[in-house]
Specification:
Blueprint (H helix, E strand, L loop, with lengths): L2 H12 L5 E7 H4 L9 E7 L5 H15 L2 E6 L5 E6 L4 E7 L1 H8 L4 E5 L4 H6 L8 H16 L1 H6 L3 H22 L17 H8 L8 H26 L5 H15 L4
Parallel strand pairs: 2-5
Antiparallel strand pairs: 1-2, 1-6, 3-4, 4-5
Length: about 260
């Protein structure tokens, strides 16, 4: 079974599920960006908003009718059933109300069937993600906090946790890079390269390798910080966001004084 056959089977089964009004293909397939490795995101719209919990249970019971399932679970949002087929095709069924559809899916959806007549309204609500002051400041403060925890892990001589910390810092650099390129549609983490420019990818690939030694950890941490702070500060200026100057300055000074990490 390929992705097209899977989508046909999903559509065929969903059309018979009681209480299901419309179903839309979202994610990379909804944006016409899918490749052979993409998962299949389906937004299932309940005919009645208060029937969502019951509809989710009916969908759980119907999953095996689509194709033999290797693994499935309801994600923590309690709205999405995540499935992997025996061919290792991946698909998600996310239950929403008609009002929620445009906001959750970002408008980038294609109707599989639409008994509720939502397609036109959803297309009109199509929007790209704009960077916000709150989103940027959340990243900036968390970056400084995790950076400061270098003092803790070095004091405890915990190289393993320090390695994890550098990966967290890199992830926040990536999020900041994506904000530099906004507005853009919502994409999954496995489609990262579509959110970044070739120059940004080159920066990430050029980061020092991460070994289980303090010189390696400090070199990578410093390199990430050298990329993060100018980018984040430029975004803050663009968005007129108040940079956490005191938090930033005090943390950097303590890192240099206590463990010799100069960022």
């Amino acid at each position: 079974m390929d992705q097209a056959a899977l989508i046909d089977r999903v559509t065929h089964v969903l059309e018979r599920v009681p209480g299901l009004g419309s179903a839309f293909l979202g994610g990379s397939h909804g944006r016409d960006e899918a490749d052979a490795y993409s998962d299949v995101d389906i937004y299932v719209v309940a005919a009645e908003a208060d029937d969502i919990p019951n509809l989710l249970r009916r969908l759980e019971d119907s999953v095996d009718e689509i194709t033999p399932i290797l693994y499935s679970k309801v994600l923590p949002n309690a709205r999405t059933i995540n499935c992997i087929t025996v061919d290792w095709l991946r698909f998600d069924l996310t239950v929403v109300s008609g009002i929620e559809l445009a906001f959750i899916a970002g408008g980038a959806v294609k109707p599989l069937f639409d008994r509720l007549g939502l397609a036109d309204a959803t297309a009109a609500a199509r929007s790209a993600i704009e960077p916000t002051t709150d989103a940027l400041l959340e990243i900036a403060n968390e970056f400084i906090r995790v950076l400061g925890l270098s003092m803790v892990v070095k004091g405890r001589e915990d190289v393993v946790v320090a390695q994890t910390g550098t990966n967290l810092l890199r992830d926040m650099l990536i999020r900041t890079m994506a904000m530099e390129n906004a507005p853009q549609p919502r994409r999954g983490v496995l489609a990262l390269r579509r959110d970044l420019t070739p120059d940004q990818v080159a920066v990430l690939l050029d980061l020092p390798p991460l070994d289980a030694t303090w010189p390696s950890i400090f070199a990578r941490t410093s390199a990430i910080a050298e990329q993060f702070f100018p980018r984040a500060r430029a975004l803050a200026e663009k968005l007129d966001a108040p940079w956490p100057e005191t938090f930033d300055r005090v943390t950097r000074k303590l890192l240099k004084d206590r463990i010799g990490l100069d960022v």
